[in-house]
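Q:
Just now I want nothing more than another pair of eyes on a protein record. Here is the record:
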Amino acid sequence: MQRPNVVPGVPFYVADPNAPPGGWTINKAAFSISASGLGDLGRNALRGFGATQIDFTVRRTFALSERVRLQSSAHLFNIFNHPNVRGPRSEHWR
């Protein structure tokens, strides 16, 4: 696994009006390539955007007789159609 070195005094994130929801992006100037491949950037030091999804299920069971039941259900996924953008390893950040 490769990790970059951190450039001291340079912020990890910068404001970007063209970035996905949140309005910020990872600052490439805050990092330099390590000669050994394992730099000083800590594990999980960078965070991507949070993922939000609300699902909804409606279920109804009908008793046809004492021993036989019929179940009907409807499943709705991501009902508010909230976009979830990819994390820092996606093509957007390269």
Summary: The mean pLDDT is 83. The first strand starts at residue 5 and ends at 6. The CA atoms of residues 5 and 41 lie 6 Å apart.
